[in-house]
Specification:
By secondary structure, this protein is an alpha/beta fold. Helix content is about 45%, strand content about 20%. It folds into two domains: about 150 residues, Rossmann fold; about 150 residues, Rossmann fold, CATH 3.40.50. The protein contains ten helices and twelve strands. The strands form two sheets. Strands 2-1-3-4-5-11 form a six-stranded parallel beta sheet, with helices on both faces. It has a six-stranded mixed beta sheet with strand order 7-6-8-9-10-12, with helices on both faces. β8, α8 and β9 form a beta-alpha-beta unit. It is globular, with a radius of gyration of 23 Å. InterPro entries: BMP_lipoprotein (IPR050957), Peripla_BP_I (IPR028082), PnrA-like (IPR003760). Keywords: Cell membrane, Lipoprotein, Membrane, Signal. It holds the Pfam family Bmp.
């Protein structure tokens, strides 16, 4: 072989090996920011459990900080993470998206991940649960099971896609159903959520969807006292009462953590916004309670299977 060709081939091989090595990113420490305490039995608790699984499966150290909501506290936490040479930081809320966008350029060696917020840039990613479909199926079930033909959503914020999904699903299945929707304007304000519950209860609502991870357990307990029904949120809440909880809209945040961290290690973690749904096996319906007959379960699961296979919700099928 000609010497020049040999040099070229050798140089090309070195370049390609260098590229492969550059794609791999060793991950020894992960930073984790929570907006609220880890013992809320909801979104924050699921996030914490996800981090424990990540720590075990990938053999990484996880540095956790709770009750981090202001930009100043986020900056202080990130400074500490940076000193510890953390390469990947998870912000377990949409509220971190804007803050990460503001400061990401100051930490080019850190990749920032938030949930359900809009981001753009080279070292920032937002993982989105596309909640419309799960809300749609919850609404279908609620209108099917309701005796009063009046169902209610106690939501945190108007931007939640599952809220509109619930209303659309309920009305698609039963056009005559009344869907009450009100907003707490907080994930954790139990007092305001209870006010909304009592108002809906007075207006004959018999099935409730408390779509807020900080007050959903309190609402389900009140629903139980009144002998009514609820659909759980974020986690599988059947253990709160099989005669009360019809099912739950479950978001498997633990799987997204492993997905993101593994892709980061391989140098394949996308920047920008990434969306996940039933088809990605990270959104599911939980176990069914006593108030949902076997035939109703089969009916709903059939619609979900069709959606997974085709991407079409029942209202989009010909």
């Amino acid at each position: 072989m000609d010497r020049k060709i040999m040099v070229f081939v050798f140089s090309l091989m070195v370049f390609l090996v260098g590229c492969v090595q550059a794609q791999e990113k060793p991950l020894e420490k992960v930073g984790f920011l929570l907006p609220h305490p880890i013992d809320d039995q909801g979104w924050n608790a699921k996030g914490y459990q996800g981090m424990l699984k990540l720590q075990s499966s990938l053999d990484v150290d996880v540095l956790i900080k709770e009750d981090i909501r202001s930009q100043q506290l986020v900056r202080e936490a990130i400074d500490e993470f940076s000193e510890e040479e953390v390469g990947l930081i998870f912000g377990h809320s949409h509220l971190y998206a804007d803050i990460f966008m503001d400061i990401k350029d100051e930490y080019p060696d850190i990749h920032f991940i938030s949930f359900n917020g809009e981001v753009e840039g080279d070292n920032v990613t937002s993982l989105h649960f596309d909640g419309y479909a799960m809300g749609f199926f919850a609404g279908m079930l609620a209108s099917e099971v309701s005796d009063s033909h009046s169902v209610g959503v106690i939501a945190a914020f108007p931007f939640q896609p599952e809220v509109q999904g619930f209303e659309d699903g309920a009305k698609f299945h039963l056009p005559s159903v009344t869907v009450k929707v009100d907003f707490v304007e907080s994930w954790v304000d139990e007092e305001e959520a209870l006010k909304i519950f009592r108002d809906m209860n007075r207006n004959n609502v018999d099935i409730f969807y408390p779509a807020g991870d900080g007050y959903h357990l309190t609402i389900i307990e009140e629903v139980k006292k009144e002998g009514l029904h609820a659909i759980g949120y974020v986690g599988d809440q059947l253990d709160l009462g099989e005669s009360t909880v019809l099912t739950s809209t479950v978001q498997e945040v633990e799987k997204l953590y492993e997905y993101a961290a593994t892709r980061y290690q391989k140098g394949e973690l996308e920047s920008g916004n990434i969306y996940f749904d039933f088809q990605d096996d990270v959104i599911t319906m939980g176990k069914y309670g006593q108030g949902v007959s076997a035939s109703t379960q089969e009916w709903l699961e059939g619609h979900i299977s069709t959606y997974i296979e085709t991407g079409d919700l029942p209202n989009n099928l010909n």
